[in-house]
Specification:
Blueprint lengths: L6 E5 L3 H14 L2 E5 L2 E5 L3 H27 L2
Antiparallel strand pairs: 1-3, 2-3
Pfam families: Tfb5 (PF06331)
Protein name: General transcription and DNA repair factor IIH subunit TFB5
Main location: nucleus
């Protein structure tokens, strides 16, 4: 029996973001299809994936700020 899964299209203009999504997918299993810079994810997991991606990007931004601050101190 064929089963349809509703998805949401994400266009990854930044390859780093796509890599983060692929790593997250290993834990959360949300990618339906991936081709080039396009990813289709399960619609019911979109908000959860978005929040997790934002959290990771925020952590990276904070780490970058700490490194920049340490560099400015020299």
């Amino acid at each position: 029996m064929v089963r349809a899964v509703v998805g949401t299209h994400i266009k990854c203009f930044d390859k780093a973001i796509k890599q983060v999504l692929l790593l997250l997918n290993e834990k959360m299993n949300f990618i339906i299809e991936e081709d080039g810079l396009d990813i289709i994810i399960k619609r019911d997991q979109f908000e959860e994936v978005k929040k997790e991606l934002e959290r990771i990007l925020e952590e990276n931004q904070q780490a970058t700020n700490v490194i920049a601050k340490a560099t400015d101190d020299y």
